[in-house]
Amino acid sequence: MESLILTPSEPEPTKNLTAPREAAQEWLTLALFALTLAMIAWALYLPTGFGAVAFVLLVLALTLHSSLSHEILHGHPFRARWAQTALGIVQPGLFVPYLRFRALHLAHHEDSRLTDPYDDPESNFFDPVVWARMPRWARALLNFNNTLCGRMLVGPFVGLYHFVSCDLRNIRKGDRIIAFHWLAHLPGVVLTLWLVSLSALPLGLYLLACYGALSILKIRTFLEHRAHERASGRTVVIEDRGPLALLFLNNNYHVVHHMHPRAAWYQLPGLYRAQRDRYLRRNDGYRYRSYSEIFRAHFLRAKDPVAHPLWSKEPR
Q1: What is the pLDDT of residues 153-195, one digit of tens each?
Q2: Rounded to an integer, what distance in angstroms lies between the CA atom of residue 63 and that of residue 248?
Q3: Measured in whole angstroms, how far is the alpha carbon of residue 212 from the centre of its chain?
């Protein structure tokens, strides 16, 4: 069986290569984390009749909290693993356990496997053989999911179904680590639901806000990685400095993040500006000017096929 063709034109970056870390600036991440929790608390305890305002606040805060969870697992504001876990273990977004997210996301940072339908846990591509065997309704759903509109509307459901069903299958096979990750997540879920029950906000509206936050996050992940023969050419940069870039904590400079995974969110724009040509050479010009450009190009038109275009069609 053939695999993805890897012919890098330059050496892969050393994983320990980092931008200069200014520990004194880590208070920015802590302050943003505190602000996010304050936004959630404010949304929950708005009086009855402010449901629309509470919903918008929650979607924004939960999106930002997910972006901060990504920062936490990469060592900001704390390098110690136990401190990271203490800060991230309670996930008010409910659907994704922090420990599971950490394990899968760090595996995703093995750049040689990016977009691999089997070995990249964040890949949106399918093995062409698996794709050919799918029923027509499933292929129609996944084709819609490959437009930005579909990714935002049904993408969270599709992603969660695949994520949870795979984890349950592995737990039934005896994977105790995955089982522990979910068990460790449950107290935070119970705490969050208890706090929601004390508020004037209906539980259904809170759950809809959790889904809405995942929907916003799908804008970021929609085209982060493409099928490319070179591993170094698979990761995008989106030169956006607007509200979405703030919600995503500058992770739109995604090629910079993959080359310097320990660089903090507030360092990424400066790193990119300092060596813009280098990053664009590395990712073979995989660049968008803004998220508005992406909406115009791909809101109703798929960017990629669902079946990996460089993957072997032989059974695996």
Answers
A1: 999 999 999 999 999 999 999 999 999 999 999 999 999 999 9
A2: 8
A3: 14
Peptide bond before residue 261 is cis, with ω within 30 degrees of 0: no
pTM, two decimals, is 0.91
Reduce the secondary structure of the chain to three states and give it as a string.
Answer: CCCCCCCCCCCCCCCCCCCCCCHHHHHHHHHHHHHHHHHHHHHHCCCCCCHHHHHHHHHHHHHHHHHHHHHHHCCCCCCCHHHHHHHHCCCCCCCCCHHHHHHHHHHHCCHHHCCCCCCCCCCCCECHHHHHHCCHHHHHHHHHHCCHHHHHHCHHHHHHHHHHHHHHHHHHCCCHHHHHHHHHHHHHHHHHHHHHHHCCCCHHHHHHHHHHHHHHHHHHHCCCECCCCCHHHCECEECCCCHHHHHCCCCCCHHHHHHCCCCCCCCHHHHHHHCHHHHHHHCCCCEECCHHHHHHHHCCCCCCCCECCCCCCCCC
* Total length of the chain: 316
| Nearest to 310, CA basis, from 28, 7, 45, 14 | 7
Chain mean position to CA 71: 11
- The closest of 280, 267, 43, 66 to 156, measured between CA atoms, is 66
What does the pLDDT average to over 87-108? 98
Could you report the per-residue pLDDT of 10-54, keeping only the tens digit for each?
333 334 444 344 555 799 999 999 999 999 999 999 999 999 999
d(Cα 12, Cα 112) in Å, to the nearest integer? 9
Any residues with CB less than 8 A from the CB of 187 and at least 6 apart, and which? Answer: 90
**Which tokens in the block code for residue 222?**
């929609």
- Check residue 25 and give its pLDDT: 78
Please, are residues 34 and 186 in contact by the beta-carbon 8 Å criterion? no
